[in-house]
Each structure stands twice: as structure tokens, then as C-alpha cells.
Amino acid sequence: MACIFCQIASGESGAEVVHRDATRMVILDHAPLFPGHCLVFPIMHYNELADCPGEVLGSLSQLGQKVALAQREVLGCDGNFMATNAVVSQSVPHLHLHVVPRRRKDGLHGFFWPRTRYDSPEQAASVATLLRGALARG
Fold first, then answer.
1. Cα separation of 24 and 36, whole Å?
2. DSSP H or E stretch at residue 99
3. Are 67 and 26 in contact (CB under 8 A)?
4. pTM of the prediction?
5. Structural domains in the chain?
6. Dihedral sign, Cα of residue 117, residue 81, residue 88, residue 130
7. CA distance 42 to 27
């Protein structure tokens, strides 16, 4: 099945385009959490976060920031929620950043998943040690 974001970028499928430049697009989510919920994605296809070069991620993040500021300016929202799913809960296998306008008491409570705690400080230290090792290896 063809990627819907690639189809939108090529003009084969329609979307409400908020911004387009040579390498990135911003569209309105067709099923928004709130009006103004945008999707920011690279025109070049990358399945997910792990496939994407750092300079492209930086560019998406910068554009996401501009979208968030625009949402605050024209929609009057109090803040924003920005998120990228990778594989799990990623409904479109094309890297994209959700930029969602938020208002206090808008009905969203924290994140969309249950929060937990580590069993002990030792467990937290062990997980941190494993992650530090992986990051040090590059």
C-alpha cells in the first residue's frame, strides 16, 4: 500500500496544507485532537525516527516550533503538545511530528498512557546505566 504522506507530498492525495517547502510539509490532521492539530513531516520518506538523519530531525523540530508558536498566536491556545510515535501507535509509517494546541483544562490529562514508578532507586540506576552505555557506544 502506498504511503499517504508520500501521496499528499506528490499531489496524488489531498490534505489541508498549512506549509510546504522544498523538504518539509505541514498539514492539518484529518482527525484532530483539537482544531489546529498539525502533522509536520519530511517530504522524503523515512519510516520512523530511527531511519531519519539528524539534520532532518532538527529541521522538523524547528518547523514544529514555528507551528507551535503560530498556534498560540492565531488559535489563542495556552501551550502545545508535540509527539512522534515510532512503530508502536504509529498509524502512518512515515515519520511525522504531531503539534497539538493545548488549553488548560482541555480534557487531556498528562500523556495518553498510564504512568508508573520504578520498583526501587536501584532499578532506576540500573536502567540509567544501561542507557548511558548504549549512548556511549553511539
1. 18
2. strand 97-102
3. yes
4. 0.84
5. 15-111 (3.30.428.10)
6. negative
7. 11
Residue 108 has pLDDT above 60, yes or no: yes
Report residue 82 as a C-alpha cell: 508535540
Long-range pairs for 30-34 at CB < 8 Å and ≥24 separation?
Answer: 32/100, 33/81, 33/100, 33/108, 34/77, 34/100, 34/101, 34/102, 34/103, 34/106
- Of 22-31, 32-41, 106-115, 124-133, which gets the smallest average pLDDT? 106-115
pLDDT digits over 2-52, tens only?
899 999 999 999 999 999 999 999 999 988 989 999 999 999 999 988 999
Residue with cell 515519520: 95
